[in-house]
Design brief:
heterodimer; A: Glucose Oxidase, domain 1; eight-stranded mixed β-sheet; 3 helices; B: Aconitase, domain 3; Aconitase, Domain 2; Aconitase, domain 3; 3 domains; five-stranded parallel β-sheet; three-stranded parallel β-sheet; 13 strands; globular
């Protein structure tokens, strides 16, 4: 893979960060799927169960709904256990978007499939929420 | 996005840094959802600032200190401790002191501090076509479906909407998104708030993010039942609006035939039984608390509880909690309703409820607060919403039944099931 591979999605929440990917094929709920104290995924419906989302660029097909999602995303930020960015397939619900803006976690949507099929866990990604562009910095 | 001169002035910081932050966030939200412009809102139901969550009360304090003020009528959502009667729940005093700091911040910002999931029972009653923002999904569904107001399921940004009086025009603020997507045919005879939370839960379990058109009910549900129906489907299916012809503005009785071409969803008594059974995971003789008042009880429900408990005594070893908002508690006190309730040994608690108080295990409070969730054997409830979140947040078994049978349970010490 070239170190200049880029993907263009739709920038939902602004911000520019770089971090290692963590790729999931199952919808993710910020309320219930993750222990806010540690960032460990505990949800039985998530294929990330047992993994840790702290500091990762979380790649998920969709977020599952709960109006309380914003609060748990903000709690992850408060505990330093938050993903540094989120890449989704479907547009996330308003509560997730509000939590991400509040927490300074960029979100790009419309990309999870393409990225999930190309990168693997720990591939270093640069996420630009302003332009919606994801750049592969270093393939693992 | 098309912005008004006033929106642009806020972005330019004319009203200060904190209003600029609020408007910038609302614009970013609007752009994410392709909103064409912003609407004037008439009401906001906003985050309380929750003492059980790290740095959460401080979020509200920071806004207040930086000069945030509510530009429209606003109310506060549920909090993590009863700020008047906290000893009754054995909440640590440190938690209550922190919670009261959020109350002080809201007093500064001019938010109506009712600390409840049912602000309408405290007098916040938005009317037809009022654009609004709400942090509580139960408030969203009641206001859309019963009052005809227009609200999305928001998070923290309800407070930004309250500060600016503006909200991006997307979702349920648009007419085209307020049309039915499914036709529910109720083939059961629900009665009372517990049944209606269960009916809503059964509908939401099968129609995620839908707008169900409800048909087949034998009679017009009362206001408490309508409230219960909405919170049930908001809990299981993320439903933000239902349409009950004859109730939901502007749908009249003549609209019951609408949606013949929509996916049809029959709900039978066995579907209701399945929800009750799903939430009866505890042993019938081993429970610590019986809880009524989810969502927070109305004055009419307080009257009902007072009648049910008149002359009765709660069994020693059992606690009966009745949760309501502080406005309704005061009305009940003034009307003499608290006397028979409290004489029975029941506790009347405001500002919080079992899933919102220090029982929650999914919260992560500041360790310095010394919060220790108690170990509970089971909680008896009369609401599918409370049952669901007791399971998910307190990690404790539940026993779900009707209001009347929950009171019988509290008095006898043995669980009385719905069927």
């Amino acid at each position: 893979m070239s170190d200049k591979t880029t993907f263009e999605g739709r920038g939902i929440v602004k911000g520019n960060v770089t971090g290692p990917a963590l790729v999931s094929r199952t919808p993710f709920s910020f309320l219930g799927d993750v222990d806010i104290r540690t960032g460990d995924v505990i949800g039985e419906l998530s294929d990330l169960r047992g993994r840790n989302i702290a500091g990762r660029v979380l790649v998920v097909p969709a977020t599952r709904g709960s109006a309380g999602a914003w609060r748990f995303l903000y709690q992850l930020k408060q505990h330093g256990t938050h993903p540094v960015a989120v890449i989704t397939g479907e547009l996330p619900d308003p509560s997730v978007v509000q939590g991400a803006i509040l927490s300074g976690v960029p979100i790009i949507s419309g990309l999870a499939d393409r990225i999930g099929n190309t990168v693997t866990d720990a591939t270093l990604l640069c996420v630009d929420g302003d332009s919606g562009v994801v750049t592969v910095i270093e393939a693992q | 996005m098309r912005l008004s001169d006033q929106d642009k002035a806020l972005l330019d910081g004319v009203k200060g840094d904190v209003d600029r932050q609020a408007m910038e966030a609302l614009v970013q939200l609007g752009e994410a959802f392709d909103a064409e412009d912003m609407v004037d809102i008439g009401y906001a139901h906003v985050h309380a600032g929750m003492a059980m969550y790290l740095g959460d009360v401080e979020l509200m304090e920071e806004l207040a200190e930086r000069g945030a003020r509510m530009a429209v009528p606003a109310s506060t959502n549920i909090a993590n401790a009863d700020m008047e009667n906290w000893q009754a729940t054995r909440a640590p005093e440190s938690l209550v002191r922190l919670q009261k700091r959020a109350e002080t911040a809201h007093n500064t910002m001019g938010t109506g501090g009712c600390f409840t999931c049912t602000p309408y029972w405290a007098g916040h009653w938005p009317t037809w076509n009022t654009h609004m923002a709400s942090i509580e999904s139960g408030v969203t569904v009641f206001c859309n479906s019963v009052l005809g107001a227009r609200s999305n399921r928001d998070g923290f940004f309800a407070v930004y909407a309250g500060m600016t009086g503006r909200y991006p025009r997307f979702g349920l603020h648009l007419d085209e998104n307020r049309k039915p997507t499914h036709r529910v045919v109720v083939e059961a005879a629900p009665s009372g708030t517990a049944d209606f939370t269960v009916l809503g839960y059964a509908i939401g379990s099968q129609t995620t993010n839908a707008i169900p058109l409800i048909t087949g009910l034998e009679r017009r549900p009362n206001l408490d039942e309508l409230d219960a129906l909405g919170v049930g489907m908001a809990t299981s299916g993320g439903v933000a609006m239902f349409i009950l012809p004859g109730v939901t503005p502007p749908y009249g009785d003549g609209d019951a035939g609408l949606g013949a071409d929509l996916p049809s969803l029959p709900i039978q008594e066995r579907d209701l039984r399945a929800v009750y059974e799903d939430f009866c995971s505890g042993e019938h003789s081993r429970f610590d608390i019986v809880h009524l008042g989810c969502p927070h009880a109305s004055f009419e429900e307080m009257k009902h509880y007072a009648q049910l408990l008149d002359g009765k005594m709660v069994k020693p070893g059992v606690e009966l909690w009745i949760t309501t908002n502080r406005t309704v508690r005061q009305m009940a006190r003034d009307s003499g309703l608290l006397r028979p309730i409290e004489a029975s040994g029941a506790k009347v608690i405001s500002d919080t409820c079992p899933i919102s108080c220090h029982f929650a295990r999914t919260a992560s409070p500041d360790p310095a607060l010394g919060v220790e969730p108690p170990t509970l054997r089971a909680i008896v409830v009369d609401s599918a919403k409370q049952a669901r979140y007791i399971r998910d947040m307190i990690h404790c078994p539940t026993l779900l039944t009707t209001t009347e049978k929950a009171v019988e349970t509290a008095v006898s010490g043995t669980f009385v099931p719905r069927w």
